[in-house]
Design brief:
mainly alpha; 75% helix
Length: 297
């Protein structure tokens, strides 16, 4: 017994000169080096964004209208309001439709022909180029209503959000243990009661994560808004009453417009708008994670 114990102890000893230790150290160092190389472009962009964007980041920049060319001052207030309005409209369309679709795919008829077709269509649409969503909305809504508008922008963004919401919500609903369904059935709950009172609350953290990922993608899209909402130098509600059927400013289009002009004041505002857009997306993600942790506990 004593000989076996000594042998086991020698096996657990770590020799700094052994081949296994050297290979492990080499691979660990290589992994750390490649990770640093992958993060370098991202960190460089964030540092440049913080440096250039913070130079004009103040209350005036967040609450004033964009300035005319060659004029000092101004801000991006209408673009912030327009971005929040159109993203909110898109969420109001895509989130209920996406969650209902996910319930059908995961619970009502998961193996039906309609479910398989819908699931395949959602996967294809998740890779749809954003500009095609804008062109489709332009032909189906802008030409029909006769003008660019915040509603058209919201519809285009909703088309981009919908596949992400459907697929993420379906995965979250499928992850709910089947024992919960059996327990609900044992208590005499109907299918509606099980879905509304058991399935959705249990899957809510995963569903919310998918929704926030979709919102983050929609908030940063530029191409579909060029075909639908266009841009405006004025407020969304000039008389105190929101007019959603008029061309509307957004942060993404403001960055696109101002980053190519030869006026330094507007270029600085484009950097500030990019920083604000990143902060909005970051705040949305942090809020979703906080809510998900609260529901998980």
């Amino acid at each position: 017994m004593s000989a076996i114990t000594v042998h086991d102890t020698r096996c657990l000893e770590r020799s700094l000169g052994s081949r296994r230790t050297l290979v492990n150290a080499l691979l660990t160092g290589l992994t750390a080096l490649l990770t640093a190389a992958a993060l370098t472009p991202l960190m460089a962009v964030l540092i440049m964004l913080l440096y250039r964007g913070s130079q004009r980041l103040d209350l005036a920049a967040l609450t004033q209208l964009p300035p005319p060319p060659m004029q000092p001052g101004g801000g991006i207030g209408n673009a912030i309001a327009g971005t929040l309005a159109m993203t909110g409209l898109a969420a109001m369309i895509a989130v209920p439709a996406g969650i209902l679709g996910a319930i059908y795919l995961a619970e009502i008829a998961p193996e039906s022909r309609l479910a398989r077709t819908t699931r395949s269509a959602a996967k294809v649409l998740s890779g749809l180029p954003a500009i095609l969503a804008g062109v489709f909305t332009y032909g189906a809504f802008v030409l029909f209503t006769g003008g660019y508008s915040a509603v058209a922008g919201g519809i285009a963004l909703a088309i981009l959000m919908l596949p992400t919401v459907v697929l993420a919500a379906e995965e979250a609903l499928r992850a709910v243990p089947n024992s919960m369904k059996q327990a609900a059935a044992g208590l005499g709950a109907t299918q509606f009661q099980y879905v509304w009172m058991v399935l959705l609350p249990a899957a809510w953290p995963g569903v919310l994560t998918g929704v926030m990922l979709a919102v983050a993608r929609a908030a940063g899209e530029t191409a579909p808004l060029l075909f639908t909402a266009l841009f405006s130098n004025y407020w969304l509600a000039p008389g105190g009453q929101p007019d959603l059927m008029q061309p509307t400013a957004s942060l993404a289009v403001l960055i696109y417009n101002f980053s190519g002009v030869p006026f330094q004041n507007q270029v600085d505002l484009a950097w500030t708008a990019a920083l604000v857009l990143v902060l909005i997306v970051l705040a949305a993600n942090l809020g979703a994670q906080a809510i998900a942790r609260r529901y998980r506990h």
